[in-house]
Request: fold
Amino acid sequence: MADSKVSELTAATTVNSADLLYLVQSNADKKLSISTLLANLPNTFTRVGGLFGLNLSNPQTIVGSGTINATTMFTSISNTAGLFALNIDDGTYVGQIKLIMCTAAAGTSSITTNIKGASSIAFTEPGQTAILIWYNSDWWIIGGSATVTY
Reply:
């Protein structure tokens, strides 16, 4: 086996937690168990969740005023007639993505805190969106159709 190329090995079709993987780390050959690899993935998936759309099955829902969390990737907001204030929690890591969508509106819901370079993001119609990224202690607007006031 020492003379085998990895590309010439038979492909595994199932794996168990005790199975080993070959790893080259800092120019040293090492073994890595599947269980060790999987034990270190939750933090990785949390950080890339914004890129791959993970954790969309339990979105945050806000009716009226409230605080948009940083623990779910997607928040839906709705309002009745009137003005509603929205705050947004600090992000948890650089590059975190936050999607916000208005699902029903008869009034205006506005985010007025923690937005870099803008004084507010206003949602007045169903379907309006905001796409934000956390960087340098602020949420930066990178897309969407909600009304932004600078």
